[in-house]
Amino acid sequence: MDATLILHLILWPPLIGFLINGLFGNSIPKWAVSIIACLGPLTSFTGTVLAYKFLSGPAHDIPLYTWFIVEGSAKINFGFYIDHLAIIMLFVVTGVGSLIHAYSTGYMHDDKGYSRFMAYMNLFLFSMLLLVLGSNLVVLFAGWEGVGLCSFLLIGFWFENKEYNKAAAKAFIMNRIGDLGFLVAIFLIINKFGGIEFTSIHETLMEEGQLNDPQIALICLMLFLGVCGKSAQIPLFTWLPDAMAGPTPVSALIHAATMVTAGIYLIARMYFLFDYSPLSLNVIAITGCITALIAATIALKQNDIKKILAYSTVSQLGYMAVALGVGSYISAVFHLMTHAFFKALLFLGAGSVIHGLHGEQDISKMGGLKSKMKWTYAVMLIGTLAIVGCPPFAGFFSKDEILASVYSKNFWYFLVLAFASVFTAWYMFRLLFATFHGQFRGSEVKFEKVHESSYSMVIPLIVLALFSMFGGFAGLPELTGGEHNLYKFLVQTIAQTRFKVSHLFEYSLWGITIVALISIAYLTYRKYATSSKVVFESGNSLVSKIILNKFYLDELYLILFVNPLKKTGSWIINQFEYGVIDRLIRIPDTLIESSSIALKNLQSGKLSWYLLSTAVSILLIVLVFIYR
Amino acid sequence: MNSAGVLILIPFIFSLLCFVAGKKWSSVVALISSVGSLFYYLLLLSSYNVKTNYVAFGFYYDWIPSIRASLSFGMDAANLLVLLLTQIVVCLAVLATMVKGNTRTGAYYGLIGLTHTFLNAFFSSQNPMTFLIFFEATLIPVYFLILNFGGPKRKQAVFKFFIYTVFGGMLMLAAILFYQSNMFPQLRLDSWAEFYQFKLSLKYQYWLFTAFFIAFAIKAPIFPFHTWQADLYSQADRPTLMILAALLSKMGIFGFVRFNFFFIQVVYDWFNYITVLCVIGVVYGAIIAWRQKDIIRLIAYSSLSHIGLIAAGTMTLTNIGMQGAMFAMLAHGLAVAGLVFVADVMIRRTNQHTVDSFSGIARNNPRFAVYFFIILLSAVGLPLTCGFIGEFYLIWALVEFKFYIGLVAALTLIFGAAYMLRWYQKTMFGIPSANILGFQKLSLSEDYIFLILVILILTLGLFPADWVGFGQFAYKYMNFIPDN
Amino acid sequence: MNTIPELIRTVPLQHYLVLSTCLFFIGMIGVLVRRNIIIVFMCIEIMLNAVNLLMVSVSAYRGEASGQIMVLFIMAVAAAEVSVGLAIIVMMYKNLKTTNIDLFNQLKG
Predict the structure, then answer these.
(1) ipTM computed for the complex
(2) What are A128-152's pLDDT values in tens digits?
(3) Which of A603, A607, A615 sits opposite C104 (nearest CB)?
(4) Hey, where are the domains in chain B?
(5) Nearest to A165 among B164, B227, B429 (CB)
(6) Contact assessment for residue B452 and residue B63, using Cβ atoms and an 8 Å cutoff
(7) Which of A162, B95, B109, C97 is close enough to B26 for a disulfide, judged by CB 3.0 to 4.6 Å?
(8) What does R_g of chain C's alpha carbons equal in angstroms?
(9) Is A290 within 8 Å of chain B by CB?
(10) CA-based nearest residue in chain A for residue C105
(11) Which domain holds residue C26?
(12) pLDDT of A451-467, one tens digit each?
């Protein structure tokens, strides 16, 4: 099949869905909106399957038209690129995207902005496809900004709430800080490599690239700044937990499965560049370590079900960053994929809980929901087991691979990640047990009203649960004797050698994992499920207070950046602008005015004064002539 | 019939008609005039071939032969985009006045027509003398427009504006007279090409560039010559303000585009100082816009911020910078005209001027909210809108030339998003406040204005290649690089 | 014609010069010091006449008529000036009921 045709089939359906629902959403019935909205991602998914089946060869470059051009510098195509990495991403985006669209038709059905919501979701998917498929950094950047925009629109979807709007603006602006880095990196790349297409950068780099070239390091660090913004790494991660203000499907699709992984995708896409800069790889790994650990720590103490999952997402993204940082790109993409499955599952499950509880998000007011929401409980259990890395669920394989590959490069990174893993297990089991086990901690009346969600919501959950259970088999570790199919597939794009660890280490890692998981599960079960009075952190001690308040990072940014800027702004408006600048500029003006006033006083109108001045002037003139 | 002179003549004749047409018909006459010149311009554009004939549709008039001062007009790659912008924005501005309860008199439309005439003449000028004359002439109708149809504090504002610009204009007059006297016997200043060929000694160039710089910096405006701007904008009638913000501010930038290549050495020597001023303006304007309560002042300072970036781009004297500046003029003109019209729609309906007095407009006016959002996206430079292309080129040129200056200029990405989103969220989102209860749906003419703007913004964002490409021909022409 | 200068030369030129200078300074000091506008006016006339005297004497010493003719012009102009000036003074007196020069400050810019 023709690659261009497949591209059109993948790329445009969501945009068409957006246009139809966006323009006529209010005048067509809801079922039609649902069908149109779901048809877009489904068609894209079909296209992806076709691409997987029928496209042979390493890559397909499809320039549609010349977007803009600068003679002597670079030609920027509005072009697209399908290779193995893109296909994997496409599966994640369109697959998970389709499921979440289906879920949304149930979740958002009674909202008065239903058609608007579905239109935004379609637009998001289109931007994400633009990001994944772009054949050069500028098209990728267009998608990158597009997803940021949709994220803004969807976080602030309930726009009558001021807090939500603040969260939306915060997300957009923090993302833009990263985008600045990205954009500057693009310019540096054009200057350095004379081109912007991935293929041409790669070729030039193969010919002229030097290891540890400071320019390349700068480019990589700038790109990584963009990644920090989009993939919520330290220091720019604080927007992601706030972004949970959006409807839950948004959190699942944008802030867990797809958009936030765009940064990981970018680095995997540009891996050849990062390979030339060990320095920036180290920076990425260290940032990832810190992010993974800090986010996991914060998640330990949160009570909002979505916030816990949000911090967990940040932490998992940290994992992926570390994997990238040690040069194990394929492991990162593997984890990206499995994470998309189980984190989307967890979010949608959480959404189902919130839906069933009519908007309650605080786990300290839940408990014992197991009996009322059987399906939700089952899928949440699967999701939890997957994320904590319990064999043989999806998370086990990808996490194990990351840990092993990190261990093969740097022991300290490994140690940090292992700690973070323990924390992950703790807060996830805590979430599970506090929500579904024990006794309901809300009012009786409320418990009566708890109900299982509709089929349109449960079916996507089940499909995602299946993926979370079996998704990991795409990449079996060497030890099991199975094939790492994902590696074999992706290595055609990402030329990366496989890391080596000893079998002894693998065995012991598995053993320790299982023992640790069982003991943590036991401890949390005792703490949150069996005891009649469950204690939730209220931030009494200093440490828990600091953790509960997210290490006061938001406040720190407020003090360091936002407030000084606000003050400067007010000061400029009230004092500086008219007090200093205006006066400075009007110096010639004021000079003329004041001298005019002085000369005016000379004309007193007194005759004697005129006469005297006349006489004195004449005298002076005479004297000048005499003594010249 | 294909002549730049006709393009100037059409609005001129119609503006005279407006003066005598009376209240009822003058707006229609003005609309016919502006639409007519738009179509005439498109006719010119369709038969313009930059490769075979760089300066086309020339119109030449030997004004005062004894001092060899001549008037010369024509279309070339450098002024093509601003001329397009002029025709479009004037059309939209006239359309913007045609609302219910319009009390504007024939004189108003006549003055708009005169402004249009002088702007066309200014942008299509083909020698320094013409450039200077219409640089100053544009002031006259604008002065009367604001003096007669402005807000309550218009007198002080317009006086300040007048003093500022006349001061700059005088400096420029002195500089051009200096040329005229220095090159008198050998050369006639009949075209830009002759002007570029003539090189004075460097000693004079420094002084002359200073004069030109101050003139353009006041007109644009560039920090710190901007304090007239917010005062004037907040007092101007808003359809006038569309012309003022979208076109008058471009005159300064256009001056840089025209004259910078004459002072290559000076611009190169002073690049750091000038771009630092521009970049300070970028950040300074953005910070003020961020904390600003008055909507029109917010637009004024956002404009200061964008114009600073464009001016810095022209200073790089590179192909990219020039292309970016020329395209960004068009992009910013469309965006700022749109923003002013958004402000007009808001203020006209409620008589409220501050950001805080609106809330929740989006709930009952989703169409308006969407239009506003797309215009805003262009203003903050999101990809696939035309604002992005301009910003992309400009920051690229700056980063290439001086990395740190480019980096600071790129802060506009963050600040721009901050102040624009603040405006948008405060007015459009939230729970509808009492002020906007009677906020009516968009009327047909308003709808058209927005639709035209949005279509232009998106089309130019998606298919900018040819438009941007004109900048390259201009660059080559100014640098005497032969076409290959 | 030549005999007349001989007669005049019996008094040396210096005397004329000193006299006219004295007269001029008397007039000038009067203009600057006195407050009554009529006296100021008189003093101006004295200054004028001091110049006239100077011109006449020098002209006579040099045996040339041009200076004396000039003096005749000056006298004519002075007469016209006096009539206009006095008329102004009269009008001002009618308006202000004073001849004090310090109170005449209507010329202020």
Answers:
(1) 0.91
(2) 999 999 888 899 999 999 999 999 9
(3) A607
(4) 4-479
(5) B429
(6) no
(7) B109
(8) 18
(9) no
(10) A605
(11) 12-99
(12) 777 888 888 889 989 98
